[in-house]
Inverse folding.
């Protein structure tokens, strides 16, 4: 099976129902995408599939064949992604950091779809969990990134 | 953790020792290596125990003048790596941004908390502040001496600017990296002057955190991310109840034939499958049909098959008596007797899970020389080293502990017997003859986490004819985590069970705090702010009950009873001012909701905190709009980190107040993932306003103190709106009536 990840084609010889998360982490060694719950509850595993924020822990790889998959490893190659990262640094968003790959991906997806998000757009899109409670910093950083 | 907070280990005799030896340093040849914190005798004894196996060191100045710093404390989001770089950099004269910080290995050099080391009790900065300053200043002095030799000038004519020694008269300068090797050869100076506080450039400033960019780009590595050559991955299925052991497998051959499977293993209280990927291991271990045998009669702390949290709560509530005395003043019996009115109430709080976002893992590798490498989340490397050595059957110095940054911890990664995966990793790696990484699925984590204990508190408050409290009798019922893991004395109260009921500062003439110990059948542990996380809720909410019964405003009554305690009086005024002036409500907000405010005080981990929360009700649920926190940690290192930590503590405290409880039925937790154990989502996060007050008192903690005031401040506000007292958490259990907006 072939997947397009961050612009490169990868051949994977694993079960077609393997969650994309584990194909990334174990098969391809791309550990920037995190495992938090495995049940679409937390969002730590968020990647972009054709620009859509997607919880990779419940996404079988055979459902994303032919799609453009973007992970946190390629965030700096993306115009919105760069803005988001700079805003994250400016607002000193991460604490433990474990949820932040997913948060950055969710924010990047939002700005791609809605370049000038309202506060309602932000709260509708930024639904990933953060046990460290960085939510206020996240919202502030997204607002800044939208203005950048 | 207060019991362990006995010694502030910055004794003047603890001069830095230079332990560098050319050749020991390997790739870091030429670096300046210093260690500090131990009397020479103890350091020698340690060295004798493991001669030449490891050079323990804090500081390496690299040839490019950047600094590698080995932190005695582990970074888990609390900002400790950055704070230590600020403190050391201030004295060493190196910009904190030039630091690379990593968790130090086990070693006597790092036992900075009264001969121990752990990352907890909010103690990392204040327990090491003086020692770390001295370390930096000593290294700087040695660099000056080395530079004087190099430039052929007197030391007295030299100064430093960040990363360089400068000879002002001639304009010559030399980078630290160029002289670090020579400096390392010098004797350690005896008398070193510390920088004057008013010339601090980094201590006390909102210095940017060192780890933020990596954590924003997926480049930070946690234990769960690590791999080594030839590694197998392990997934675990635990027995449903602690103490049960694996018996027959009904479908072993079938599971063995699943893709990628290497082997199936029986472990104490669990089974494991090793495979070439974790997903495959998990698929297989969860397909395995295991019959679990009941615990043998002598199994310590086996989980009873009929245990339920509901029954345990009833048991705690039924405990009568005054308990072991934890604190007393005046004559509480006489005070209650003579009171014009007595108020009574019983409170309770549930078991809580840590629910940190990174599931636990351990990577184990046995080496040809008989040593064992372990990469694992931990808050106490030496304790884990000793425990791992026992499991492995080797000497502790043969266990090499690596302590990666933590994906959240909140007390999760202390040693908790069956709550840590490292014994499984050690046994599996031994059996497989290959490195093994064990990851607990989120479901296994909810099954085996060490919980905040359940607690009940009974209060009787006596009021005089003017409605002022004159007597307070409190009994805490339950078990404390400190007693469970570090030894309980039957005739002494466990501070971790009573802190937050004991140690309050209100002037109530007659008072007594007692503790009744009742074994908690679950594996209990430390949870952010420990006993304070529930006891301040009990006390500060009962305080409002007393105020209401006496016809007093709860804020004014607090001010009045703190009149002789200027530090706390000031703090309470500060939070009132920060919130725009105290008002209790209910009042109508611009958006049409009816709102009220609650206030609470707490004295956790050496810091003082005053909290106000503004709340409305929506369809029987509490909505928290704003939380104002005034915090006095004495003095500070990084205000930006403090503000972030207060935000974080508010989120966790609010999460506990609104949503969280672990429920057991038939000896098993009912929730095995976040769907059954909800944690605070983004849309329930309030605005958080922080004011830092530096009273100049001895430095206190930061990571935990913001939490304890939140549940009572919220509950007190809710009570105003709902017209009924809140005596039990979480609020999601209660159907709140009253003046819903
Ligand atoms: S790991 Fe995918 S949503 Fe939690
Ligand atoms: S930063 Fe720790 S979980 Fe979000």
């Amino acid at each position: 099976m072939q997947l397009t990840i961050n612009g490169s084609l990868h051949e994977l010889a694993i079960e077609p129902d393997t969650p994309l998360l584990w194909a990334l982490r174990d098969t391809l060694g791309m550990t920037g995408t995190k495992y938090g719950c495995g049940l679409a509850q937390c969002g730590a595993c968020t990647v972009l599939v054709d620009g859509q924020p997607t919880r990779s822990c419940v996404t079988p790889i055979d459902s994303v064949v032919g799609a453009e998959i973007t992970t946190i490893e390629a965030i700096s190659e993306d115009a919105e992604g760069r803005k988001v990262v700079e805003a994250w640094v400016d607002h000193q968003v991460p604490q433990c950091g474990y949820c932040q790959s997913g948060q950055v991906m969710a924010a990047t997806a939002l700005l791609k779809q809605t370049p000038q998000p309202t506060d309602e757009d932000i709260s509708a899109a930024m639904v990933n969990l953060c046990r460290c409670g960085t939510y206020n910093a996240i919202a502030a950083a997204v607002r800044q990134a939208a203005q950048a | 953790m207060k019991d362990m907070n006995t010694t502030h280990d910055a004794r003047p005799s603890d001069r830095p020792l230079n332990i560098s030896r050319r050749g020991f340093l390997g790739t870091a040849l030429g670096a300046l290596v210093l260690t500090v914190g131990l009397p020479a005798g103890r350091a020698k004894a340690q060295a004798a125990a493991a001669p030449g196996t490891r050079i323990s060191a804090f500081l390496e100045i690299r040839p490019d003048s950047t600094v590698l710093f080995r932190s005695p404390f582990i970074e888990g989001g609390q900002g400790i790596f950055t704070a230590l770089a600020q403190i050391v950099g201030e004295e060493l004269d190196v910009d904190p941004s030039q630091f690379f910080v990593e968790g130090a290995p086990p070693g006597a050099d790092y036992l900075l908390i009264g001969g121990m080391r752990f990352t907890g009790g909010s103690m990392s900065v204040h327990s090491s502040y003086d020692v770390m300053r001295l370390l930096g200043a000593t290294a700087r002095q040695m660099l000056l001496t080395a530079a004087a030799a190099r430039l052929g000038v007197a030391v007295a004519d030299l100064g430093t600017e960040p990363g360089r020694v400068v000879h002002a008269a001639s304009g010559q300068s030399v980078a630290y990296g160029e002289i670090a090797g020579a400096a390392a050869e010098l004797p350690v100076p005896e008398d070193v002057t510390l920088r004057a506080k008013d010339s601090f450039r980094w201590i006390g400033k909102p210095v940017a955190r060192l780890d933020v960019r990596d954590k924003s780009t997926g480049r930070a590595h946690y234990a769960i991310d690590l791999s080594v050559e030839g590694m197998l991955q392990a997934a675990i299925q635990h027995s449903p109840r602690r103490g049960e052991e694996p018996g027959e497998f009904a479908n072993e051959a079938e599971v063995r034939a699943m893709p990628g499977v290497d082997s199936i293993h029986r472990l104490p209280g669990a089974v494991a499958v090793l495979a070439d990927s974790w997903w495959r291991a998990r698929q297989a271990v969860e397909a395995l049909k295991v019959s679990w045998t009941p615990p043998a009669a002598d199994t310590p702390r086996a989980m009873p098959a009929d245990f339920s949290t509901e029954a345990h709560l009833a048991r705690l509530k039924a405990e009568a008596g005054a308990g072991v005395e934890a604190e007393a003043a005046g004559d509480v019996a006489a005070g209650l007797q003579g009171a014009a009115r007595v108020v009574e109430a019983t409170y309770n709080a549930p078991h809580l899970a840590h629910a940190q976002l990174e599931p636990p893992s351990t990577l184990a590798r046995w080496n040809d020389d008989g040593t064992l490498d372990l990469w694992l989340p931990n808050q106490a490397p030496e304790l884990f080293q000793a425990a791992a050595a026992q499991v492995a059957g080797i000497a502790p110095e043969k266990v090499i502990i690596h302590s990666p940054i933590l994906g959240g911890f909140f007390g999760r990664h202390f040693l908790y017997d069956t709550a840590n995966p490292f014994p499984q990793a050690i046994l599996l790696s031994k059996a497989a003859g290959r490195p093994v990484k064990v990851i607990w699925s989120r479901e296994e984590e909810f099954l085996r986490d060490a919980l905040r204990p359940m607690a009940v508190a009974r209060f009787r408050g006596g009021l005089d004819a003017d409605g002022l409290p004159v007597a307070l009798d409190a009994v805490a019922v339950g078990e404390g985590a400190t007693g469970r893991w570090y030894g309980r004395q039957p005739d002494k109260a466990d501070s971790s069970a009573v802190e937050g009921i004991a140690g309050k500062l209100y002037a109530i003439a007659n008072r007594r705090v007692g503790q009744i110990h009742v074994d908690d059948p679950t594996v209990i542990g430390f949870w952010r702010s420990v006993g304070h996380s529930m006891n301040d809720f009990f006390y500060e909410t009962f305080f409002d009950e007393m105020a209401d019964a006496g016809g007093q405003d709860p804020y004014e009554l607090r001010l009045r009873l703190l009149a002789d305690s200027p530090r706390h009086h000031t703090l309470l005024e500060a939070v009132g001012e920060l919130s725009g002036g105290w008002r209790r409500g209910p009042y109508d907000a611009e958006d049409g909701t009816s709102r009220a405010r609650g206030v609470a005080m707490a004295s956790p981990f050496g810091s003082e905190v005053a909290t106000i929360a503004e709340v409305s009700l929506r369809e029987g649920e509490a909505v928290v709009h704003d939380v104002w926190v005034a915090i006095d940690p004495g003095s500070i290192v990084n205000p930006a980190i403090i503000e972030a930590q207060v935000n974080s503590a508010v989120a966790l405290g609010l999460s506990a107040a609104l949503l969280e409880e672990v429920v057991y039925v038939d000896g098993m937790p009912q929730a095995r993932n976040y769907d059954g154990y909800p944690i605070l989502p983004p849309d329930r996060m309030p605005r958080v306003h922080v004011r830092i007050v530096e009273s100049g008192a001895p430095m206190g903690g930061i990571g935990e103190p913001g939490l304890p005031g939140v549940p009572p401040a919220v509950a007190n506000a809710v009570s105003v709106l709902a017209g009924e007292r809140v005596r039990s958490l979480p609020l999601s259990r209660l159907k709140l009536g009253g003046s819903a907006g």
